[in-house]
Design brief:
Blueprint: E1 2-8, E2 15-20, E3 23-27, H1 36-49, E4 56-60, E5 66-71
Parallel strand pairs: 1-3
Antiparallel strand pairs: 1-5, 2-3, 4-5
Length: 83
């Protein structure tokens, strides 16, 4: 699943707001220095979509507030169940 994400770094509290089906606004409680905000964004999105961080990747916009993010939601045959 491809989603567009608008990131607000250095927020008081982390949050995810769904603007439309493929557009999210994410507040990140980390500064945009040294890739820390991007790393925290992946953690926040992984928690929101209930997947591991390895199943989320920033495809475009690593140095921008507007990002294109790929999230792998479907389980594969070799992935462990979450029951």
């Amino acid at each position: 699943m491809l989603i567009r994400v608008y990131v607000t770094p250095n927020a008081r509290q982390a949050s995810v707001v769904m603007v439309s089906e493929d557009h999210f606004e994410v507040r990140v409680d980390e500064r945009a220095a040294g890739g820390r905000a991007n790393k925290r964004l992946l953690e926040i999105l992984a928690e929101h979509f209930k997947v591991s961080k390895s199943r989320i990747a920033i495809l475009r916009g690593t140095k921008s507030r507007n990002k294109l993010v790929h999230v792998i939601l479907e389980r594969t045959a070799d992935s462990p169940s979450r029951d």
